[in-house]
Amino acid sequence: MKTITSLTPAMLADSAAVRVESLGPQGRISLRARGDLSALNGALGLDLPTRIGHRASTEGMEALCLGPDEWVLVLAHDRVDAMLAALGAVYDDHPHSATSISGREVSLLIDGPRAAELLAIACPRDIATIAEGAGRRTVFDGASVVIWHDAPGRFRMDVWNSFASFVAQTLITGARELAAEPVEGG
Amino acid sequence: MSRYRVPGKGRVDAARPVGFTFDGAAYHGLAGDTVASALLANGVHLMGRSFKYHRPRGPVSAGSEEPNALIGTRRGPGRFEPNTRATMQEVWEGLQTTSQNKYPSLRFDIGAVNDAAYMLFSAGFYYKTFKWPQSFWHKVYEPFIRAAAGLGVAPAEEDPDHYASRYLHCDLLIVGAGPAGLAAAVEAAGRGLSVAIVDENAEAGGTLLSEPQAVIDGQKAWDWLAQTLKHLKAAGVRVMTRTTAFGYYHQNMIGLVQKLTDHLAAPSADLPRERLWRVRARQVVLAQGALEKPLIFNGNDRPGVMLAGSAQTYLNRYGVRVGDEAVVVTSHDSAWYAAFDLADAGTRIKAIVDTREKVSEDLLSAARLRGIETRLSHSVTATGGRLRLAHVTVNEVDCGQVREGQRIYCDCLLMSGGWTPSLHLFSHTKGSLQWDADLTTFLPKDTPEDCVIAGAGRGLWGIGAALNDGTEQARAALRALGVEGAGGVHAVDHDRSGSGTTMRELPTDRNPGRAKAFVDYQNDVTAKDLRLAVREGMRSIEHVKRYTTNGMATDQGKMSNINGLNIAADALGKPQPEVGLTTFRPPYTPTSFGAFAGYHRGDHFEVVRKTQIDPWAEEHGAVFENVAQWRRARYFPKPGEDMDAAVRRECAAVRASVGIFDASTLGKIEVVGPDAVEFMNRMYTNPWTKLAPGRCRYGLLLGDDGFIRDDGVIGRLSQDRFHVTTTTGGAARVMNMMEDYLQTEWPDLNVWLTSTTEEWSTVALNGPDAATLLQPFVEGVDLTEDAFPHMSCIECTVAGLPARLFRISFTGEVGFEVNVPAPYGRQLWETLWQAGQRHDICAYGTETMHVLRAEKGYIIVGQDTDGTVTPYDAGMGWAVGKKKPDFVGMRGLARPDLTAEGRKQLVGLLTKDGSKLEEGAQIVFDPDQPIPMKMVGHVTSSYDIGTTERPIALALIEGGHDRMGETVHIPMPDRTIAATITGTVFVDPENARLKIRGESA
Amino acid sequence: MLLIHCPYCDETLPEAEFTYAGQAHIVRARTPSDQTDAEWEEFLFIRENVRGPHFERWRHFHGCGRYFNAVRDTVSDRFLTTYKAGEPRPDLSELEGRA
User: Fold this and answer.
1) ipTM computed for the complex
2) B1-156 — its CATH code?
3) What is the pLDDT of residues B887-897, one digit of tens each?
4) Closest CA to B436 of B454, B456, B459
């Protein structure tokens, strides 16, 4: 299949069951820190969530807690340098690591009444444990991914570039299968 | 209407005839039929030949336990499957089926001579026969065994179907949709729990499908079933048919295979054929029911001999009488009901033979009412008929004496040895069993899993008992989930609970040594074989099983295990619990490889990671190789070039002008924090404190054992920020190792690691023209020796893109690595490619990279090292910081065996005759020593396609560093090659070529 | 496939998210160069082969990324407990009966 890249967003699968799209460029920062986070919160303009899987947002930026000292910040692509500079300004007072990972990943949108079932074809975790408004790093078909549950039946999946085509192929096959089969339990 | 079809009976659709073929002959069945029921409706019992003796066989059951009626099915090109149970395969218009284990035809088979030689083929035949002389092993015995082995014919074509998988997490999984399972589902439904119920059959109902006479809570069984299923689905219960729970794994993970298209004539191409479900259930109800046991007597395998309960199923579920004239032989009440049903449907029951002295008056009067002759205290000692049962011999047993037999002519014999719980899945849980002396069977006892057993699966016979136990057990499962059930009792009329006794072999007046009384139909194991195994010294049931192969066929001993145990226990003179049951293992029924492979086949077999530049390489004809999970361009052949020619051209181009190389797969780790330099000092052998921002250093990573683990160039971007690179294959491993030390040994360090392998696309330019080519695109730095010397790094702009520019070389030429945000990698590549045309730019792959670096003596970790090589062994002691208090591997390097004399050390080799050595070839000092020779090392890298005048090689050789100029020998199959030990640098030892010549344009 | 409780995420998750990382509570000496050859050999190579509760390390690789410790019964293949890196060994007698 065609290489998946954020430079060329594409509709990968589209049916009444579920739609899969690869999305365009997205600014992302991996933020690592510990201790009192108030200096960072000030620089970011939001309070970093401290429970793994929880999210916080401010206008134009969202933070997801991935580990006890790890967050991913999602923001507009052209705001990354400014945000890195703002964080850099508090580095001496509150040492941390802020690294742009904007180019590292592609986001896939999985949207539709059977989106959770599509994720369940290759994600061993119970998708229902990722509450609406939450997110998790987990594994999908052998690749580490971050899954965001944005709204009922709507998920985003961040996957490293080199895995994207493989993961997308799994999703395309699964979406086709869901479109072809009658609804379970009906 | 087929001759044996009973109008108005069964759940098949008389309005929908279905045409299919069996061994080329056309037959008609009805929608809802299995291949077995449709053939039986046409009077066909002979459906296959047995595996070992090629005896004619027909279906003995109506379900997944069927050992005999195994057929090949063809569903169009490529869609052939052997060993399908005719009793499970549904018919559809156009289905092609074939019988197995026959030559040249099912009715006349040459292999049946094995049957005549029965006395030779006893237990352990192969062990005893194919022993001596040893010279026969490969030439005579193996071909013979291979020719005889195999059940059915493996498909030769690639499977065109696709297979799916899915995870399911639920509160309650119920396995088996018979009365117990359905009652359990009813109890659990509508309580806010996620509930799934699965059944291997095409429709839910289990026993209810075979016993329509029952009345449940005032409703006819089939009406109750329909209403119950409707209610369950409305309540959100997931009802999955054609779905086999094949294995019960740790912590309530159950493997299911759902068959989605095998019953369809024209399935959608997008539908998978099968789906593997990995279910994680908080609680499980096993309601798999019980299996009817065959009786063991001479000739109990002749087509027409069938389990009584199965005959009842064929009649009531499929509307098929299995014959016109039947004899029934039983030790259990249940067969009497089968006889009555068949009698009522028009089959003449010529006798009910019961081994027991007494049966209930109800049964006797019901038989009398139908004019059926009954013979208590009788046995069956023989059957006759060539390809179909023609008669049975019935003998009275009087105080243990078997009287003279009487022949009764009939076309089917219905047998029942009673019932045994289906313990398979329970056994997978490592559950313990207890012997029930009354039922003469094992019952489930304790299990470490969160699971309960309901109904006949724990020895409760009859629909009423199953329903009520299903409710009760579900209630227990609900309680464990913190939910209170409603309980309640189902009232069942016309229930057929019964009792019986358990027999070993039926009493006989014949020589038991000559009886062909089959215990395991599929593996052709007889009672005689089991007794022989015990006589020959097998004491453990596990040994008896393996020696005789009883229960080892694809039916997993569903019919044979308990009968085999009873006979072995008798032969051993021990009670059954002391002999024990063999362990059942997954899968419950044969499961296709496709289901296990799921989506992972063909191009999608496993993850293949591709760089952003990969599509360009593909468009330009690259030949790829796999490196760890990545696929990398190995070389770029021009038309007519083989690998050697392409690599020779690529190598020459890099040394002559400039080459371009996709280095994106190199692992990259961003090390950031106030303690970054301290962390680097502790992880790598090299000292980092004095490395100035803007400079790079080659770093060597060891394990704490002192051996080389990885290497790479590391740039210091700022005081607190390092850009670490690793080998392609080592990226994840290095990251893991660094995190391990950081998190668990040095949690006090203020430093964090971020994987940036995929953040950057890395384009390497190497060659004397590299600086000239690159300079016009670089903003922020002059590519001169003064401004940007070798081993420099800088964050700048390249071709308008934010970039990290490194001046490093893995070829010995002037080299740059340009890192840009990954998605822009191809754009940068094409920009440089265009501009490079006037420099004769050449795209090169990993093979050229390997050659050029070997010419410079640069090692590849994992090729020139093998996990036992220290920096000193590799001649890289210069990379080890001597003044550091500690680093990973420092203490390891001081281990006595690592400082000992005579370690294998990395050297260069030049062959005296100018031939190329083989990588991996062993090296000796003295070629004239006797064999086995003392091997002193091996060739690690070897090339003859580079830019040196003669082939070069790197090798690890004992004490090699002190043997410069000495001759070693490499014995090959055809000759021994002499080579001279040299240094490892073959090109430009002064590193003059690393300098930028003149000023860039 | 086992279920493993990650003490950092406080969730019980499928084994597929985790990687095994060897025996737990093997401490790398603060100053390795002070170690005798025998001590270093012990640190590098000598491991338990327990029948029963085994102290071992796992990493929540496809998750929070943390290394943590666990006690797993090698007979039943059940986890008796998991706990964060750096926390002391739990008392085995208190864990008994959980298998």
Assistant:
1) 0.97
2) 3.10.20.440
3) 999 999 999 99
4) B459
